[in-house]
Amino acid sequence: MSAGARPALARFARSAPRVAVLAVAALALSACGGGAEKSDSPSPSTTSAAADGGAKPAAFPVTVEHKYGSTTIDEEPKTIVTLGLSDQDAVLALGVTPAGSVDWFKEKPYGKWPWTKDKWGTNTPEIVGERDEYNIEKIAALKPDLVIAQYSGMKKEQYDTLSKFTKVVAQPKGHPDYGAPWQLMTQQIGKSLGKDAEAAKLISDIDARFKAAREKHPEWATKTLAVADSFEAGKYSAFTKIDPKSIFFQELGFKLKPEIDTLSKPGFNVAELSAEKLNVLDVDRLVWVTSSTEANDRIKAEPLYKKLKVNQEKRDLFVPYQDPDIGAAFSFNTVLSIPYAIDQIEPLLAAVK
Length: 353
What we know:
Layout: H1 44-51, E1 62-66, E2 69-73, E3 80-82, H2 87-93, E4 100-103, H3 117-120, E5 126-130, E6 133-134, H4 136-141, E7 146-148, H5 156-163, E8 167-169, H6 182-192, H7 196-216, E9 224-232, E10 235-239, H8 244-251, E11 255-256, H9 258-262, E12 270-274, E13 285-290, H10 293-301, H11 303-306, H12 309-312, E14 316-320, H13 326-332, H14 337-350
Helix pairs in contact: 6-7, 7-14, 8-13, 13-14
């Protein structure tokens, strides 16, 4: 797991998680979130009814297949805990407020990001772990009817332990951890909540947003693009085709560079590069997701980077992870964050000639 004094904030989890700890601010997380107090916050079923105009949820039971088998959910879950790093977005989009969630970058997973702030409202969840390290006691104390772990690296022993007292829908089968498409994870979450139709509508709406962007910029289909970051001098990372960031730009119409995937370890969403290998980033559009101007200046000062045409011809973009939260939005790459990401990144890409 990567860490540093001021790490780039764009490196996200992978099958052997190496998630950077956000060091922009040391936020103290309360041990008791509002989500644990059912009497003080609307239940998921209440929120769902409002979002659906009073429509009844899909008939239960439903059976959801996942990495560790299948889980049958007998009735509409009332109390839900999300353990995937971005699972809360799809759950919120479906009108349900998770009672518990995991932390990621030492930030509250609620209220910060512009695409979820209004969805959470005052119903802040209990923090029940950090990334793939779960506090089983806290989860059990919430008495959840359902635990969802889609964008996660949940281990079999964790699944087995949780399954002793609740229903668990683990990450999708047939994909590496943190490597399932956002559409599939949304479908899995929708089915688990008895909201297949609503989930399908969310996916359809996002697909339409991507299609509109591609039609507006047909020239992007002829361009190669790579997404990269750098934590320290001389060390660089390029994201593979299974990473949410790469998937986002591919759905905007860009072509990814296969050579990046060949440089990564099996099952990883990133290829580690030395300065001598920066030539693999000489693409038509290069997007750096960075955490500070210091990181930007350091990358630009690298002698071997200066030799790349993408740099010389000013076809590289340095996009902040947050403030504004552009990098975070396409790093999450969820049904809630994608519209925000498209709105923010489209003019930046269009300005590059």
